[in-house]
Amino acid sequence: MEVSIIIPSHNEGVNLKNTLESITKNTEFEDYEIVVVDDASTDNSTNFLKSDFKDVKLIKTNVNCSNKARNIGAKNAIGDVLFFLDAHVFPLTKFWMEDLFNFAKKYEKSVCGPCISVYGSPEVKGYGFSVINTKLNIDWLPKKTEVPYEVPMIGSACLVTSAKNFRKIGQFNDNFLSWGYDDIEFCIRSWLMGYRIFVLPNVDVAHLFRSNLPYPVKNEDILYNLLITYILHLKHSRMDKLVSDLSCEINVNILFDLVRKNNILNLRKISIKKRVHDDNWFFDKFGIKIN
Questions:
Q1: Where are the domains of the chain?
Q2: By the 8 A CB rule, do 221 and 178 touch?
C-alpha cells in the first residue's frame, strides 16, 4: 500500500462524509486506504461508513484528543506515506494525492503539505504559516513561487510524510490534551531534528475554518499544550517570558503540576539529544522575532 489517509473525527457529522466524497471525487490515485479514527464521538457521526464507505477502516476510541487519534490511525495504517487530514477538508486539485505522494517519496527527510484555502472563499489562501508572538499565534504566509519551497510550519489539516519519517520524528505529541498547538509542536520538532518542511503551492485543499468547535475545549488544556511546546523545544529565557505572560490569565502552578505529573522535563532532555539544531537556529532561519 502506497498511501494511508488518516482522519481523526469527533462529532463531525456531515463534514466527514463530505470530506470522504471529496477525496474520492478528486483522486485518480488507486493505491490508498482511508483510516477514520472516531475519537469518542457522541453523535453516531461515523455510522454511515458501514453502508456508504465500506472500504474505509474505522477505529473507535474513548478519548477525545486529535493527536492520540492520529497516532492510533498511524499505528493501524499500512501505507508507505501517511496523509493526515482533518474531517472537514476538501481537495480542490485533481492530482493532489499524486503530487504530495511523489514529493514525499522524492525528498526523503521531508514533511509537506498543500496550499490551504478557506472553504467557501477559495480566493483566500495560505501557503504554510509562521508564529508571531509569545503565545505562538499564527500568521498564514503568501505564495512565494510556483514550485515547492520551505516554510516554517504547515497545518495538520493536511500534513504528509513517509511512515518511516513519522516514526523517527516521534509521531504527534501524546502528552497533549484535546486540541491546540499539535501541528506547531510537530513542525518545530521536525526542523530541530534535521527534517525539512515544504509547501506545494499548486496543490490546493480547502479547509472549513470554524469559529466554534463541535466539542468543548478547556482554555487551560490549550495553554498546557503551549507550555509543553516551550519546555520541549525552546530556550529557558523564552519560556520565562511565556510564563510571565500566562500568569496574567491563569494560575500557572496548575499547568506546572501537570508538567511534573507527566514527566515533561525528562522528555525535554530526550528531545534535546535528538535534535541537530536549536530554537535560535530555527527562529533565525525564518526571521521569527520571539525573544
A1: 3-207
A2: yes
CATH code at 3-207:
3.90.550.10
Q: In the 3-class helix/strand/coil scheme, how is 9-55 assigned residue by residue?
A: ECCCCHHHHHHHHHHHHCCCCCCEEEEEEEECCCCCCCCCHHHHCCC
Chain CA centroid to CA 42, Å: 23
Phi-psi region of 181 (alpha: psi -120 to 50; beta: other; left: phi over 0): left
Residue 16 CB-density burial (10 A; 0-12 exposed, 13-18 middle, 19+ buried): buried
pLDDT-derived band of residue 214, with 50, 70 and 90 as boundaries?
low
User: CB of 257 within 8 A of CB of 227?
Assistant: no
| Other CB atoms within 10 A of residue 173 CB | 20
Q: Does residue 36 contact residue 83 with C-beta atoms inside 8 Å?
A: no
Which among 80, 144, 77 is positioned nearest to 106, based on CA atoms? 80
> Residue 161's CB: how many other CB atoms inside 10 A?
25
Question: Angle at CA 91, nearest 5°, toward 44 and 31?
Answer: 85
Q: 135: which DSSP letter?
A: T
C-alpha cell at 89: 477538508
Comparing 291 with 27, which gets the higher pLDDT? 27
Q: What is the pLDDT of residues 97-143, one digit of tens each?
A: 999 999 999 999 999 999 999 999 999 999 999 999 999 999 999 99
Query: What value does the CA radius of gyration of the chain take, rounded to a whole number of Å?
Result: 18
CB atoms within 10 A of CB 35: 25
Contact 23, 91 (CB under 8 A): yes
Indicate the helix (H) or strand (E) that contains 113: strand 110-118
